[in-house]
Amino acid sequence: MNPVRMAWIIARIARRHGRDPADGAPLAGLRVLDVGCGAGLASEALARAGAAVTGLDAAGAALAAGRAHAAAGGLVIDYREGTTGRLLSDGEAGGFDAVLALEVVEHVADRDAFCADLAALVRPGGAVFLSTLNRTARAFLVAKIGAEYVLRLLPAGTHDWRMFVRPGELGAALRRAGLRVADITGLGFDPLAGRWRTQRDVGVNYMLMAVRGGAGAAAPC
């Protein structure tokens, strides 16, 4: 999933800054924050696209793995342990051209507070990207039962289906934080091609882009 997801995100960051996504380093000179970065899958893709990347996570062990992997690949990534609130208290408000929070919001207890932090961290005119799981019966069967108990792709109990977020709900939380949804896409696995792809269907996995201080369309339900 990650290459397809990051290609979608990098293309939209680049185009907002008048860049060609096909250039070798389309995000050069831009500062990007990866919230909940884990061991750095998204952070490394952003760094390879030329961005100055800050990876934020509360799990020190994951960050240690990320630092080691980035060093082995010759990538410079500023990995920090902590929360969005810690970054804001450190004076990082409005410090990033783009902020990512991928597969994070479905684990957050206070969605409005989290979205407000993301909005505060991105500069005016900058973009916030989130990816998550829709709260549908299909998502329960595929992402909860299928991934955790049938295929065992994830440890049992990784997700609480009640915390999955409908696009309309997430869009409303982002609007309350001063952001506007500008783009949305679903993500699905194509078994015939053996790969993930973007799609119009947002019934299971989806991601969206929201802009601080910009106009955008409302998220569909």
Describe the structure.
This protein is α/β, with parallel strands linked by helices and 221 residues long. The chain has a single domain (2-212), classed as Rossmann fold. The chain has seven helices and eight strands. An eight-stranded mixed β-sheet has the order 3-2-1-4-5-8-6-7. α2 links the parallel β1 and β2 (52-57). α1 packs across α2 (41-48) and α5 packs across α7 (167-176). The longest helix is centred in the first third of the chain and has 15 residues, at 2-16. The chain is globular, with a radius of gyration of 17 Å. The two termini are 23 Å apart. Residues 148-152 and 214-221 have low confidence and may be disordered.
CATH architecture: 3-Layer(aba) Sandwich
Shape: globular
**If you compute it from the alpha carbons, what radius of gyration comes out, rounded to the nearest whole angstrom?**
17 Å
**Helix-strand pattern:** HEHEHEHEHEHHEEE
> What is the number of helical segments per DSSP (H or I, 4+ residues)?
7
- The CATH superfamily appears as Vaccinia Virus protein VP39
Report strand order across the widest sheet. Answer: 3-2-1-4-5-8-6-7
Main β-sheet: number of strands, strand sense, barrel status? 8 strands, mixed
Distance between the termini: 23 Å
- Overall number of structural domains: 1
Structural class estimated from helices and strands: alpha/beta
| Mean pLDDT across all amino acids | 89
